[in-house]
């Protein structure tokens, strides 16, 4: 997770981005959506292996930056305005527990899972049956509760990769829509 004291207009690729990107190298399909694309780094990794790559971010500056790499960039909440169905939806979540959303790049509100759950609920509406979501959370959040809630939304959810960092463990979750 990017240092909160570093002020940028959008989230710059950090260790979590690179960890997620490495996992995405082998993903293939037709339609993919990157929610919270930031700089567009992860969406760009998916470009060679998907026919259509769509990226969203709540931060307008991020979508402007990502548009240098990704043609289909939309400034919106999660996947809310989208109607097409995707094989894969990814999101490097804002997962830090917080009282409020002062920085949408990192603030996840209650236990670091309130904003993530809003994003996962929105993603569910645009995932094909049998399609999946990959999301990145952390030991700094109540990730066990997030997995439980993901399952209760109708996914099979499991941890597929982890990475120990100095102050947290990164946790990559695969959620397959039943
Ligand atoms: C941890 S950053 C990840 C950025 C980029 N995907 C990466 O891996 O470097 C989370 C991103 O999600 C965006 N975001 C937060 N809440 C969002 C929401 N409800 N809908 C869309 N984007 C959101 C933030 O603006 C930020 O760009």
Mean pLDDT: 95
SSE order: HEHEHEEEEHEHEE
Give the termini separation. 30 Å
Helix fraction bin: 10-25%
SSE layout and pairings?
Elements: H1 15-24, E1 29-35, H2 41-46, E2 50-57, H3 60-66, E3 72-75, E4 86-92, E5 96-97, E6 107-109, H4 114-124, E7 127-138, H5 143-152, E8 155-164, E9 169-177
Parallel strand pairs: 1-2, 1-4, 2-3, 4-7, 5-6
Antiparallel strand pairs: 7-9, 8-9
This protein binds S-adenosylmethionine.
Provide a descriptive summary of the structure in words.
Strand 1, helix 2 and strand 2 form a beta-alpha-beta unit. The protein has a single domain (15-177), classed as 3-Layer(aba) Sandwich (Rossmann fold). The strands form two sheets. It has a seven-stranded mixed sheet with strand order 3-2-1-4-7-9-8, sandwiched between helices. The chain has a two-stranded parallel sheet with strand order 5-6. It has 178 residues and is of the alpha/beta class. Helices cover 25% and strands 35% of the residues. The mean pLDDT is 95. The chain binds S-adenosylmethionine. Residues 10-11, 13, 17, 20, 35-39, 41-42, 56-59, 62, 77-78, 92, 94, 104-106, 115, 119 line the site of S-adenosylmethionine.
What's the quick description here?
It contains 5 helices and 9 strands. It has helices at 15-24, 41-46, 60-66, 114-124, 143-152, and strands spanning 29-35, 50-57, 72-75, 86-92, 96-97, 107-109, 127-138, 155-164, 169-177. The strands form 2 sheets. Strands 3-2-1-4-7-9-8 form a 7-stranded mixed sheet, sandwiched between helices. It has a two-stranded parallel ribbon with strand order 5-6.
